[in-house]
Each structure stands twice: as C-alpha cells, then as structure tokens.
User: What shape does this take?
Amino acid sequence: MSEITVAQVHAFILNNYKNRALLKELNESITIAWKAGNMAAKDDFKIGDKVAFKARGFNKTGIVTKINRKKIIVKENNSIISWNCTPGSLTKIVD
Assistant: This one.
C-alpha cells in the first residue's frame, strides 16, 4: 500500500466537498482509526507513570493516578489539579 500525504487528503476533500455521503464515510473511518489509536496508547501507561501533556496551550507534567476505559487521570505536578486526558495526548517521561 502506498503512503498518502496530508496534502493529498486535503485535495481529495476539496474536490469532493459536494459528496456528503463520501465525506461522512471518510469522517467515520478517521474517527474509528483515532479511537483505536487512543485505545492502543492506553496500554502504554500504568498508575504512577510520569507523563507530559499540553493543556490549554501550556506544557504540563504530572503523574498517572487512574486509568479509565477511555481517559487517563493525571495529577499535575506541584498542584492539586487533576486532568482528564486522552491516552494519545500523553507522552511518558523516562527518568
């Protein structure tokens, strides 16, 4: 299978913007792939892992405190704030 570029996807969408059924099917496929990627990424984390993530435009670090079915709860370092994060938005920090 050949690789497809982002530019090719953009061009395809712009050339087919009137075909609502096709665009809906494309959107559903992307959503399924995104969710599958997040579910696979969830397996990379365990409670107590140090992680980095971006929240409201700021780079944050914290500790994984709970792993739910779809989201991971991260307690921000030096704070009482906890964040509900998608697994795909987290990066494990290796000491």
In short: The first helix runs from residue 6 to 15. The chain has a mean pLDDT of 89. Helices lie at 6-15, 20-42. Residues 50-92 form one domain.
